Amino acid sequence: MNRWERYSPESLARGEADTYGRLFISPKGQRELDRVRILHAGVDTVRQLYRGTPCLSQFHEIIEAYHEGRGAKIDLFGTTWAVGAGAAGSGFRYRLQNNQLGVIIFFQARHVKVDTLGTHLKIELSPHFIHELDPSECQAFMDNIAKHMLAHLEPAGCAVHLALDVQGWEPPKDFMDRFVTRSKKVMKIDGIDSLTLEQGGIATTYGRAETLMFGTAGALQCAIYNKTREAHHRDKIHFWENIWKDATTDDLAQAYDPDADVWRIEMRFHQSVLAEYARAIPCNVDTGEVLDDTGFARFLDTVPHLTGLWRSAMQSYRLDHSRNLIDPAWQLLQDDARFYCDAPDFMYKRARKAPGLGNEKNICLAFGNLISIYARQGFRTHQAIRYLQRSGMWDDLAEYYRRRGVDAGDFRQLVEQRLLERRLLGKAA
């Protein structure tokens, strides 16, 4: 595949190319890509697997809490967890979850006897957990949990999602015509349509795509989507905006434009894919030097190779300009993204979300929205009740529960339970 030559004003004055210049030149013409701004390149999700034999006393304590039913909680590893069932597709029977921390623990493999050596533990880290710690601290946190839950412990592989957030670029209207992939599964979602295409199929869609998905979750998957809209939908826009605001241009001006949409390109490496990469000899992406041969059993093992893995994935899923020539913007996104290099993601810190009230007329919805906001702000039960009394809806709320036989003590317990549920499982995290 032919590539564009890259230049900058400074390199042109010297008569030489610039590896990171924004002026792209090829036989097909010239493109200026100064407006393409990379706001963030980092690890979005980590899923670490562990093999071993379950520590039955620990497992029995968790399972006993699980049998208490909905709303069950347990204190382990210095943290309060909501206890629930693992999703059918997860491969595990039980789940410990704390959304405020940003961690989910899956345990007891469905297809292995509980007292038999097997992959009985998976720990999933969310973006806001990953962004507050460096990779070694993330690994130590997961290893500590695994030591408490498994004997004969060994790491059994990990899955990693790499994310690149960009402004000044979005999928062009002819994206599907120029995008090259071997994947048979393609999904496109836009403002009015959602459809799945198989290789060789033909479909017509209208409007600009908001989400493009290629491949399956059990392999190397590529997702391209409007991150601004997705962050608003998931109530995470304040978290991401505080990361994007740290991005600067070459002249140290702020790169992020709050009035423009941010698009994300995400490469999701299943653990089986990383195992295939590990069987090769990973090299430094700049020098060609062999870095190590330890494999990718742990998240920490992958960190020196993340930029190289990104570039490889961006070649497997590639946007072409024309036959035998890569799209210049895709080339820029492939080459310029750096993961845990120069500006490591763990330097960014999470900021609290700005509070906001919904304007729903229904008293129950208004009450639920207030509780979510109170949980987000970290209010205690007595504070939440005091603020509810000042909210302008207290008389209606009190009357609503009075008619249902809920006295002051029961109402206090209700508020306390709702606050805790939102911190563990809801949007307050």
Q: How would you characterize the overall build of this protein?
A:
- By secondary structure, the chain is of the alpha+beta class.
- The chain contains 15 helices and 18 strands.
- It has helices at 9-14, 56-66, 127-132, 135-149, 175-178, 227-233, 237-244, 271-279, 299-302, 306-316, 328-336, 363-377, 381-389, 394-402, 408-425, and strands at 5-7, 23-26, 29-32, 37-54, 73-76, 79-85, 92-98, 103-109, 118-125, 150-167, 179-180, 185-190, 194-198, 209-214, 220-226, 263-269, 318-322, 325-326.
- The strands form three sheets. Strands 5-6-7-8-9-4-10-16-15-14-12-13 form a twelve-stranded antiparallel β-sheet.
- Strand 5 and strand 6 (79-85) form a beta hairpin.
- The chain is globular.
- It starts with a strand and ends with a helix.
- 33% of the residues are buried.
- Mean pLDDT is 84; it is low at 200-206 and 342-361.
**What is the typical, i.e. mean, pLDDT?**
84
Distance between the termini: 44 Å
* Physical arrangement of strands within the biggest beta sheet: 5-6-7-8-9-4-10-16-15-14-12-13
Shape: globular
| Uncertain residue segments | 200-206, 342-361
Which tags fit this structure?
429 residues, alpha+beta, twelve-stranded antiparallel β-sheet, three-stranded antiparallel β-sheet, 15 helices, 18 strands, 33% helix
Short description:
The protein has 429 residues and is of the alpha+beta class. It contains 15 helices and 18 strands.
